[in-house]
Design goal:
alpha+beta, Folate-binding fold, two-stranded antiparallel ribbon, about 15% helix, globular, binds zinc ion, SoxD, Sarcosine oxidase subunit delta, SoxD_sf
Length: about 110
């Protein structure tokens, strides 16, 4: 069972208290973007085998959205953090680099 610590209220919540919100850190494109950029924003998602960044909502708790960094193969959770960030905190990136050599934070186009 997936257990995530809500960074907003500090509760350890199992997946029955949470709602998945898809991939985190999507770059949003406005009306002046190209069709390809807008299509990518709407439909293209990563589905990695390994490190992944996701949005979650503590729907049966404080109701707030947050981000989680976890491994989709081992189910290891590297950390949770505020949804009001454009990239994972440095401490979480260093933790991931320590257990997944060669992993790098992606750079958005
Ligand atoms: Zn919460």
């Amino acid at each position: 069972m997936l257990i995530l610590e809500c960074p907003c209220c500090g509760v350890l919540a199992d997946e029955t208290e949470l709602t998945a919100g898809g991939e985190a850190h999507l770059k949003r494109f406005g009306p002046e973007s190209s069709d390809d950029e807008f299509e990518g924003y709407l439909f293209r998602r990563e589905n990695p085998r390994g490190v992944h960044f996701e949005r979650w909502r503590h729907s049966h708790g404080c109701g707030k959205w947050f981000h989680a960094a976890r491994n989709t193969v081992t189910l290891e959770v590297y950390g949770t953090y505020s949804a009001q960030t454009t990239e994972p905190p440095e401490a979480i990136r260093q933790k991931i680099s320590g257990v997944a050599p060669g992993w790098k934070w992606r750079l958005f186009k």
